[in-house]
Specification:
Elements: E1 2-8, E2 13-20, E3 28-35, H1 42-60, E4 66-74, H2 77-80, E5 91-96, E6 105-112, E7 116-119, E8 125-128, E9 133-140, H3 147-164, H4 169-172, E10 173-180, H5 183-200, E11 211-216, E12 226-232, E13 241-244, E14 263-267, E15 271-279, H6 294-311, E16 319-326, H7 332-342, E17 348-352, E18 362-371
Helix pairs in contact: 3-5
Length: 380
């Protein structure tokens, strides 16, 4: 993978990206963009990031690519979301998870070469390739009721939308992100509702779950307790999916009452995508490891991720990006130094987002990309 970090003085932006597949017909990019001038207003920081995104895709990349997905991380969604350009064809996610580098906003963007993008009337963004359609849903919410009722409504809307695209939750959903306002209080309602939905959809400990991150986050409207983004591929087959366990490092999630996969490997004819769920400092008994020691928790989380990647014949060097969630703002600098020393070439973003269990000080998620020839399947 090609890795580069660019500092644009004219746009006051740091751009870190990893570019995969340049030697084939379809390249992919994951990029993280951060403002350099933190004294500017939120409106100006957002404007400069949007200009930087356009510059990256129009002028900097060695092959033409399209933005297919982007997520803006805001420090104050109620006052800042209105400044984001919500036009265009790409899937747009907006969540309040303050960047901890001092800026008011950051953005994660995913791009694909040779992609045809269509947006359905319900907001679903479909990325059409010769053999697969990639469906991105963002900002699914329902403002009525508590977190339990909102989660039921969110999944109901998502399942209905998948059905409109000839897909279903059990077979075709690859990854979800669930953002919970006041996670310490409202996560329990989400867990109960998700398990209820999964039982109805044949997602159980005897079958499989879905790779996911469940973390603190909110949208601009204060009445929304639960917000979901999701990714699905209607043409994917069961043979293309491998669910990663991290055996010997972590226990199955259902043993402590939650329902998600630690990671999911998706095999195509020419590559594999490895989705790593939000991963914390947990052992094979479901216990928090290294209470109140954030750097030791960071290392245990990374060890757990490495165990998952190893099951997919990948390493940390295959990671296209890392999102790092912290509970305590005071942990930012030591964690930033630690992660940069370990993985200087991997784009990273550190966000304020308490994890679903108070004892976990840090959670890490990401995605690996690796070339992989498998004649059983069509190329990506």
């Amino acid at each position: 993978m090609k890795a580069e970090t660019i500092f644009s003085e004219s746009l006051n932006t740091k751009i870190s990206y990893r570019l995969f597949g340049l030697d084939g017909p379809t390249a992919e990019i994951h990029a993280l963009l951060e403002p350099l001038n933190h004294s500017l207003s939120a409106q100006e920081q957002i404007r400069q990031l949007e200009q930087s995104l356009n510059w990256l895709f129009a002028d900097l990349l060695p092959v033409p690519m399209q933005q297919v997905w982007k997520r803006f991380f805001l420090s104050d969604a109620a006052n800042q979301a209105t400044y984001i350009d919500q036009g265009g064809a790409s899937a747009l996610s907006i969540v309040q998870q303050p960047p901890l580098n001092g800026s008011k906003v950051a953005v994660w963007v995913y791009g694909i070469q040779n992609a045809s993008i269509q947006k359905a009337s319900d907001g679903t963004v479909g990325i059409h390739r010769p053999h697969y359609t990639h469906l991105f849903h963002t900002g699914i919410h329902s403002p009525e009721g508590d977190s339990y009722k909102q989660t039921l409504a969110v999944f109901s809307r998502y399942i209905s939308s998948l059905q409109n695209q000839s897909a279903n939750l059990e077979q075709h959903c690859i990854r979800t992100w669930l953002f919970v306002q006041n996670v310490d209080v409202q996560y329990a309602g989400l867990v109960t509702a998700r398990k209820q939905v999964f039982d109805q959809e044949a997602l159980t400990s005897d079958t499989h779950y879905i790779a996911s991150t469940g973390i603190e986050g909110r949208m601009a409207h204060p009445e929304v307790a639960v917000l979901m983004d999701a990714y699905a591929v209607p043409e994917i087959t069961a043979e293309q999916l491998t669910f990663l366990k991290g055996t010997g490092f972590m226990n199955p999630t259902h043993e402590y009452g939650v329902t998600f996969e630690r990671g999911t490997e998706v095999s195509y004819g020419d590559r594999k995508h490895v989705f790593i769920s939000g991963t914390a400092s947990i052992n094979d008994k479901g216990e928090v490891v290294h209470p109140q020691e954030v750097l030791k928790q960071a290392q245990r989380a990374l060890d757990n991720i490495s165990a998952l990647l190893n099951e997919a014949s990948c390493t940390m060097e295959d990671m296209a990006y890392l999102l790092i969630y912290l509970r305590d703002v005071a942990d930012y600098k030591p964690v930033e130094d630690y992660m940069q020393a370990l993985y200087p070439g991997v784009p990273k973003l550190i966000l304020l987002a308490p994890v679903c269990r108070p004892g976990w000080l840090i959670e890490i998620e990401g995605m690996a990309l690796r070339a992989h020839a498998d004649p059983r399947f069509e190329p990506f």
